[in-house]
Amino acid sequence: MKVLAAIASFGTKNDQYLARIVQEYGSMSFDVHVVVLSNLPKTVGPGVEVTVVDLKGKNPGTLPFGHKKLFADHLNDYDLFIYSEDDMLITEANLRAYLKACEVLEGNEIPGFFRFERGTDGLINYPEVHGPHHWDCQSVRRRKDQVFASFTNEHAACYALTRDQLQRAISSGGFLVDPHCGKFDLICSAGNDPYTQCGFEKVIGISSLDDFLIHHLPNAYVGSTFGVGEPELRNQVQRLMRISQNGSCPTPLFPVESKLMFNRFSKDCYEQVQQPIIDVVPRGTKTLLSVGCGSGATEAALVEKGIHVLAVPADPVFSGSPRAKGVEFVDGNVPTVLKKLEGQQFDCIIAVDALHLSADPAGMVSEFAPLLRAGGTMIVRVPTVRRLATVYRALTGHQSFAELGGYAKTGTQFTSRGILRRWLEKAGLRVERITQMSSTKPSGPQSLVLAPIRAMKLGGNLIATARKL
Q: Are 256 and 269 in contact (CB under 8 A)?
């Protein structure tokens, strides 16, 4: 097995990790040739080739794209091609798991790796699990004795391709391309083009997940809110394994990710407790239904207040999240959930960052409103997705004009006080209050000329409370 490993290494910050990676490749039983792509000369180790890339006048983020021509030039010289950033420790066990998976997967499926970090206390962090990203419950597939699933964030700062897979990637026309941004920023795009541009689907072996875990050596996100720990990730994987065993194909309540660049206006499925939501839950509430929840931190906080909380997760993979202690889950699409809840009544219903991601927001409100008791309260939060702000971002280069359009194109609804009011009133609810919560507070004096523009650019959320008469 002849292996070509290309490592992108800018500057000297990660040289200690680069040395560790090169040492690992040197210990393998494969015939591995390592090429380091850098912006400056380096002495890495015996047998390691260092290619200095001239970045004068170029964005440093273009450096990683240099590995693509290297792979194409040596297509017929190696059996396996590996790309990684200079802080990803790939082991021989990882590569053997990759090759074993290739034997059972279909032609458009590529085994992928998944990053992990380890804190000084030994606890594990998975940095890719953040924001709207999660295991796709509808992607579970069994290939002989192995089970695979897709994670909605393909980034892992590394990938591997067999010679045949590389040939197909090149032939697709999406591999040998100029440096670019797409679903990911410039640096990350170089390592994800095989999945995002070449027609392949990245799948991860969840039945032997440990074999596909790659150590992100800096442990950069340990202790931050970026990523989740072992309990949350394993809970999602266990849900997927149960799906593979019973042969069902569950349906999400709604897609949690928009179709916009960088997942703008997507739902944060792992957010911390949202106190502004808790603050508007009426006193005396005994039963509460949460429509479209993520991992359930806010719902668990409501349980601690003595409220019986039943939650409908946005995607069944979140059902039973360890963060949602004491919360009862009911998953499925809208008809399935309504059938399970038939005859129940709730003092309060909350829908946090859900309606704008639904194809029919007014319809969703109308479906769940009958579950409110007379006098009950519905609380809705949506991000402010203004038409004028969307056009402004396109004009200023912060988003593509191709992203302008309706829900089918963007995966998100435009929102405003008036739109949110209409969604609620169409369901027969009386809107009591709609509050604008800005995520950015302008500083300094504002002129009358700039005030409307700044207001248009501000993000934030709308929180509405409505009562059932």
A: yes
Region of 398 please: left (phi>0), alpha (psi -120 to 50) or beta.
alpha
Report d(CA 176, CA 343) in Å as an integer.
58
Provide the strand spans (E) within 318-398.
328-329, 346-352, 372-383
3-state secondary structure of 25: helix
Q: Tokens at residue 1, please?
A: 């097995």
Q: What is the largest distance, in Å, between two alpha-carbon atoms of the chain?
A: 78
CA dist list (Å): 190 to 177, 387, 442: 10, 32, 36
- Over residues 2-35, the pLDDT tens digits come to 999 999 999 999 999 999 999 999 999 999 999 9
What angle is formed at CA 206 by the lines to CA 201 and CA 212, rounded to 5 degrees? 80
Distance, CA of 405 to CA of 241 (rounded, Å): 38
CATH class, domain 263-468, is: alpha beta
Question: Residue 27: in which H helix or E strand, if any?
Answer: none
pTM of structure: 0.90
How far is CA 116 from each of CA 125, 209, 381, rounded to the nearest angstrom? Answer: 6, 11, 32
For residues 180 and 149, is the Cβ–Cβ distance under 8 A?
Answer: no
Q: What is the pLDDT of residues 207-244, one digit of tens each?
A: 999 999 999 999 999 988 899 999 999 999 999 999 99
Q: Are 174 and 200 in contact (CB under 8 A)?
A: no
Rounded to whole angstroms, what are the CA distances from 97 to 3, 125, 154, 160, 358? 15, 22, 18, 11, 39
Distance from C-alpha of 387 to C-alpha of 425, rounded to nearest angstrom: 22
Fold match between domain 2-246 and domain 263-468? no
Q: Residue 402 burial (CB < 10 Å; 0-12/13-18/19+)?
A: exposed
- For the domain covering 2-246, report its CATH number: 3.90.550
What torsion, rounded to 10 degrees, do the Cα atoms 185, 189, 192, 196 define?
90
Q: Which residues pair with 8 in a beta bridge?
A: 37, 85
- What are the extents of the domains in the chain? 2-246, 263-468
